[in-house]
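Risk register update: the risk that structure generation would not scale has been downgraded. Supporting records follow, first protein first.
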Amino acid sequence: MNYDEIKFGKFYLKAIHATTVLNHLNLENEEFDTLYKRSFNSAKREGNYNFYKKNVIGDEQSVEYFSSVGYYIFLKTVLELKKHEHLQKYLESVKNECFEDLIDIYKESSKTPRKKEGETRTDIGFEDLQYFERNKIDVSKNKVELETIANKEHKFFNKSVVITGEFGGIENRNDLIPMLNNIGAVIKSTVSGKTDFLIIGNEPGPSKLAKAIDLGIPLITEDELYALLKI
């Protein structure tokens, strides 16, 4: 599913046009409208009403775009009300897109000064974001001292590496960072033209994977990673 990139506040969000949603899910206009309204009610029940409303470009009467976050909540509603089981796997893929979008916003929002002393920001309150935040790669844990690396011929020596997906053999993805640092790799959080390798586990982030393929960045599978790490 291709997302457009639109300006939302001071952030750029991946967004999908409502007509694309309608066509993809094979919904009639009337059925789409019903599900759209119910998705707001679902978000309200879960305590995410304002967050959802903020992430739909338009209003409750006329939707034009969903941000990736709003689209995720809408899909959850479709699954709940229509029992489209074939959408479950697709929903997980969209969820990864949403997480990447939200983390970018979260990083920017966290830099915004609080209005009052002791006030906690509530505009990023999605429970899945909290889960992702606990489990995302923490590049601040990088500790690479290239001069101390014995094998300077290793594939990862002095290379920029991005990690995406889940790894069955590792309890926490952040445990991979010191292993990779010890052979000279520098872990980055986003894919760019300067990335040397993208390490992919199960259910990799679609945008990271697509960008790496588009840029011709070599992909390293979980099994290949373990072989290179000799674990």
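Supporting record for the second protein:
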Amino acid sequence: MNNVKRSQSGIAAIELAITLPILLLLLVGISELSRALIQLNTLTKAVQNGARFAVVDIYGTNSANTIANPADIKNVVVYGNKLGSGNKVLNNLTTSDVVISQPTNYVIITTSYNFTPVFATLPAFFGYGGDSLSFGFSASTAMRTSP
């Protein structure tokens, strides 16, 4: 009986040493995916607010197919207000990332954003790696400018 206990002593530590890195990698991966989805949702809502502002800000003041000032629209998307003051909705988002197009009876707001995870590059093992983990995503919203 003592031989069996002695031969299995330390097995739990070995199991922990094998599974802990895998579990930590899984935990970090899930948290980074969550951050990316939160930032995608924030970007989408900012673009929707910009499209809504483009149409509602001028409602009843101009002809049916006009939109608000494009610089103000870009500020609403990036800063959340038309003055362009305060904190940005997303850190790396700029007004040059926002594209406004106006086909007949619509306004389309599109923006792209580059997501950078906390661990921005893969570690280099055996001469491989060092690749960037950043990736881009975009959001677009169309809203009608006239009935």
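Residues 43 and 117 are 16 Å apart (CA to CA). On this basis the risk owner (M.S.) recommends closing the item.
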